[in-house]
Amino acid sequence: MVRVWAPEDLWTNAKSIATASGIDGSKAVLAFLRWYTGEPGAQLPEPATRKEPDRA
Q: How many domains does the structure of the chain reveal?
């Protein structure tokens, strides 16, 4: 097991999006790494549709 550094706001946003998509943040990162390294059968996680927050 290793630790990967990511800015807290990026991780929080990614985790929220992953949860809304029915997967936890760690599993989304693992799926990406498996795809990125070319593991047989690995699939790239579905990217989120970015929604900018309302600026009031």
A: 1
Q: Pick the closest to residue 19 from 6, 7, 28 (CA basis).
A: 28
pLDDT digits (tens, 9 = 90+) for 1-28: 888 899 999 888 888 888 888 888 888 8
Helix axis angle, 25-36 to 8-20, nearest 10°: 100
Q: Is residue 23 within 8 Å of residue 47, measured between CB atoms?
A: no
- Tokens of residue 16, six digits: 């929220």
21 lies in some domain: yes
pTM of the shown model: 0.67
Domain assignment present for residue 15? The answer is: yes
